[in-house]
């Protein structure tokens, strides 16, 4: 199961040492935080985050200090299942550099409509609340990285 959750203010992560839940504020995601209980250093999650509501989606994409790669997927979609482990890899590599979020278009139909998702999987990259690029179709981890690369440099969008 995914242990990372979102609220209006940040990403809730579990301290790897003591299990305490801590909130990393969206605007602080590029740096590190400390566990409120044991002081262990915490970084932005290196795993995909499930985004279930418009509110969480907007908070994440507009406030995140890091670019957010969003995977629009559905449980019945075969290629989406192939993409899932690739996204896990990309999320792990991107810890502290970018975030990976997943939107289940079956349950979050508002978001699917709003972004006119008519084929899945669709991957889109958001910076400062704006979609800067998207691609339809399954990609392996190296291709996803290549897709992200041009947009990760500062100042370019
Ligand atoms: Zn701790």
| Highest-level CATH class of the domain at 45-151 | Alpha Beta
Q: Which fold name corresponds to the CATH topology of the domain at 45-151?
A: Glutaredoxin
Sheet having the most strands: 5 strands, mixed
Mean pLDDT: 92
How many helices?
Answer: 4
Structural class: alpha+beta
Taking the alpha carbons of the first and last residues, their distance comes to 33 Å
Write the CATH architecture name of the domain at 45-151: 3-Layer(aba) Sandwich
Shape: globular
Helical residue percent band = 25-40%
Q: Using DSSP, what is the number of strands?
A: 10
Order of helices and strands: EEEEEEHEHEHEEH
Annotated CATH homologous superfamily of the domain at 45-151: Glutaredoxin
Strand order of the largest sheet: 6-8-7-9-10
Q: Any low-confidence stretches, pLDDT <50, length ≥5?
A: none
Question: Rg from C-alpha positions?
Answer: 15 Å
Strand content: 25-35%
Hetero groups: zinc ion
What would you say about this model in short?
The protein has 157 residues and is α+β, with helices and mostly antiparallel strands. The chain has helices at 54-63, 78-93, 109-114, 141-148; strands at 5-6, 10-14, 21-25, 33-34, 41-42, 49-50, 68-73, 99-104, 122-127, 130-136.
């Amino acid at each position: 199961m995914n242990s990372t959750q979102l609220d209006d203010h940040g990403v809730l992560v579990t301290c790897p040492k003591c299990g305490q839940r801590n909130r990393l504020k969206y605007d602080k995601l590029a740096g590190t935080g400390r566990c409120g209980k044991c002081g262990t250093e915490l970084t932005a999650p290196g795993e995909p985050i499930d985004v279930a509501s418009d509110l969480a989606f907007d908070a994440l994409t507009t406030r995140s200090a890091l670019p957010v790669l969003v995977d629009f997927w559905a449980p019945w979609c075969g290629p989406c299942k192939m993409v899932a482990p690739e996204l896990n890899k990309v999320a792990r590599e991107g810890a502290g550099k970018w975030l990976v979020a997943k939107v289940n278009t079956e349950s979050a139909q508002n978001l699917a409509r709003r972004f006119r998702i008519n084929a899945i999987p669709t991957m889109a990259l958001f910076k400062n609340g704006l979609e800067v690029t998207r691609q339809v179709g399954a990609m392996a981890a190296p291709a996803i990285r290549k897709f992200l690369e041009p947009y990760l440099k500062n100042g370019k969008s």
